[in-house]
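User: Here's a structure from my thesis project, written as structure tokens. My advisor, Dr. K., wants to see whether a designed sequence matches the one we expressed. Can you design one independently, without my sequence as a hint?
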């Protein structure tokens, strides 16, 4: 078998293409070899082990320009309602939306969200008194779900910023009395990268 000029040209072009692929790192950085940072937001909790009777944040989604945090409750008895203010740096992230998480059941009133000041969102969610007379206890069906999910848009790249519950946060039982054991609300830090 003899090499024809067209076969020789095809071999040379194939080798050139293979050679050019060897320098590609698939990182979108022009071929430089090095770490590739994910785009989006990454949440880190301020506490490693969440104690019983606590409200805490947990990251649920991460997109290149946004992220969502679940507001969760650990080991609570007779929870009827939760109200809190979440504070964040409004030059880094911006509140965009929310969704009831199902922890309080399908008989919840609409989640109330108010942005009172730049960098603060006030949230209130409760069970419907006209449909149920008891609160929810951890371990009941649906309590593996979050209380509410809050979503944010990322405004500033490559920044670490606190996201914290303001001290006025509280939980109420089915008698509409503050749950003293539900006193710890834990936030953390969001690291952004656009």
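Assistant: Designed independently from the structure alone:
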């Amino acid at each position: 078998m003899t090499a024809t000029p067209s076969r020789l040209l095809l071999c040379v072009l194939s080798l050139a293409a293979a050679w050019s692929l060897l320098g590609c790192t698939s990182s979108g950085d022009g071929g430089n070899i090095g770490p590739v940072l994910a785009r989006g937001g990454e949440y880190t909790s301020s506490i490693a082990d969440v104690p019983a009777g606590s409200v805490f944040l947990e990251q649920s989604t991460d997109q290149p320009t946004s992220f969502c945090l679940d507001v969760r409750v650990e080991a609570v008895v007779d929870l009827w309602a939760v109200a809190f203010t979440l504070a964040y740096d409004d030059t880094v992230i911006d509140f965009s939306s929310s969704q009831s998480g199902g922890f309080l059941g399908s008989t919840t009133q609409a989640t109330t969200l108010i942005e009172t000041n730049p960098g603060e969102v006030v949230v209130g969610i409760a069970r419907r008194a006209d449909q149920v007379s008891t609160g929810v206890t951890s371990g009941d069906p649906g309590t593996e779900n979050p209380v509410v999910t809050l979503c944010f848009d990322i405004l500033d790249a490559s920044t670490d910023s606190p996201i914290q519950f303001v001290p006025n946060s509280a939980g109420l039982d089915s008698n509409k009395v503050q749950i003293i054991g539900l006193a710890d609300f834990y936030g953390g830090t969001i690291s952004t990268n656009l």
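When you compare it with your expressed construct, this may help: The longest strand covers residues 54-63.
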